[in-house]
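During the no-cost extension, the postdoctoral fellow (Dr. R.K.) reprocessed legacy sequence entries with the updated structure-token encoder. One reprocessed record is reproduced below for audit purposes.
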Amino acid sequence: NDDGIEAPGFRLLVQALNAAGHNLVAFAPHANNSAAGMRINLGTPMELRKREDLNTEWGLDSSLGETRLFELEGTPCDTMIVALDGGLEHAVPGIHPRLVVSGVNLGPNMSQDSYHSGTMGAAREAGLYGMPAIASSFTSFDPEGMARSIEATVILVERAMKVLPKVAANAGRPHDAMD
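Re-encoded structure tokens follow.
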């Protein structure tokens, strides 16, 4: 999401998707990139780092679903470009994502605000790669009450997963969502 890898909405969504048994590979910005839209970095090195520390800190259960977290020193669109243009295959060989989930970020991304949102920009960028994507935002800038938005996002992810084609068994282990 555009709020960064350690943002409350991102953490809560990862925890909820893990608890629901989804395998996840997450590429997220290292810091807040709110209102980045579809901005990308050109000619600037962007370090990609594993964040295995968050699996323990967030209490993720690998017996329910495998979760791999990465942070990129870049924008939300940079994370999608890096992930979908070879970075995912390099970082986690054999993984073939079926769906991108961007969010849940603080603040309503409605009307013209959606053009400025980095969360929405990441989902649009995924779409440019032909990858189905969901962007999810909470209607407040206060994380109080965000659980309902997380719950609705998980329901939407699960409904989308029912209609998306399965990855062939010989194409590698499918992962359900990538944030």
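The first strand starts at residue 24 and ends at 29. Residues 147-163 form the longest helix (17 residues). The remaining legacy entries will be reprocessed before the final report is submitted.
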